[in-house]
TrEMBL record:
Keywords: Chloride, Chloride channel, Ion channel, Ion transport, Membrane, Transmembrane, Transmembrane helix, Transport
Membrane-crossing segments per the record: 25-45, 65-83
Protein name, as recorded: Chloride channel protein
Protein's cellular compartments: Membrane
InterPro entries the UniProt entry points to: Cl-channel_core, ClC, ClC-type_chloride_channel
One family name in Pfam for this protein: Voltage_CLC
Membrane topology: Multi-pass membrane protein
Length: 152
């Protein structure tokens, strides 16, 4: 099965080389990566908004404002549990520093789980009121999309 898949991809690549120049192919891939990174950004923003909306509008009782002090701790706890149980074999790094290190020292190889794990953890943390930003997870997700598409 795997050998047939590789042979099929090789035939597609040979056809691509005969019809599309490398420069045009690179432009096409850049557009695809840009669209996918934009969709990832929209998904992160939407997911964060829905979590925040659920937590702030569906509570109708007298002491609901005291929960706003507890929500960031719950979000961090859920994020830690997600990392511990779903991303247990891979190293999970946040921020732009590990990304810059991967670009400079690891031949721009960003692990595939960064495509979705950064979005999920950032949405949970920020949606519950944590004080992190949404920019670094989007940059990391976009670079993971580009890295893995380039490797493919």
């Amino acid at each position: 099965m795997y050998i047939r898949f590789v042979n099929y991809l090789d035939k597609i690549n040979q056809y691509r080389k005969s019809k599309i120049s490398n420069r045009n192919f690179l432009v096409i891939l850049a557009v695809i990566v840009g669209v996918l990174a934009g969709l990832a950004a929209a998904a992160l923003k939407s997911l964060t908004h829905h979590i925040e909306e659920f937590l702030q509008s569906d509570w109708h009782w007298k002491y609901k404002y005291y929960l706003y002090f507890i929500f960031p701790m719950i979000g961090i706890l859920l994020t830690v549990l997600y990392i511990k149980y779903f991303i247990r074999k891979s190293k999970f790094e946040t921020g732009l520093t590990p990304l810059l290190y991967a670009i400079s020292k690891k031949s721009s190889r960003v692990e595939a789980h960064n495509i979705y794990s950064q979005i999920i953890t950032a949405a949970i943390t920020v949606g519950f009121g944590g004080s992190t930003g949404l920019e670094a997870p989007i940059v990391t997700s976009g670079s993971a999309i580009g890295s893995n598409l380039g490797r493919f």
